[in-house]
Design brief:
The protein is of the alpha+beta class. About 35% of the residues lie in helices and about 35% in strands. A hairpin with a 2-residue loop joins strand 5 and strand 6.
């Protein structure tokens, strides 16, 4: 297991041992389970979540890498996901926030979580924002 995978596993265990709650200041932790675009296998990923007006969002930043993370490609191919957040587990549909709506939302996210603005500066791609809409 890589250091990154080990770190993620520790985060998942800590999240679950805290009853599905981890506060990261203006962000909260989300465990997102996606289905592999090619493998069809289920993949669990810990992510920072952003909440606004009763909606939950995740940001496919990958620290400003030139490509979007694998979990993003998985949910685009298979938008039915499982969300663990704030002590609750539920099925959701992942919806990529489009164009100007994304831009306005991303600006508010950066206000609350400035590191995402830094990530955007590190890449030429537009970092996607995804709404996790409970089904």
């Amino acid at each position: 297991m890589s250091d990154f995978e080990n770190f993620n596993q520790q985060m998942i265990e800590q999240f679950r041992s805290n009853g599905g709650r981890m506060d990261w200041g203006p962000a909260s932790m989300v465990l997102l389970t996606t289905t592999g675009a090619k493998s069809r296998q289920r993949h669990l990923t810990p992510l920072a979540g952003y909440q606004e007006d009763g909606r939950l969002y995740v940001i496919a930043s990958m620290g400003g890498a030139p490509r979007s993370p694998a979990w993003y490609h998985n949910l685009v191919a298979n938008p039915t996901v499982t969300v663990e957040h704030d002590g609750d587990t539920y099925d959701a549909t992942a919806k990529v926030v489009p164009g100007e709506q994304r831009d306005a939302l991303f600006a508010r996210i950066v206000e609350a979580l400035p590191q995402f603005g830094e990530y955007q500066q590190n890449t030429t791609r537009v970092i996607p924002v995804i709404e996790l809409a409970r089904t």
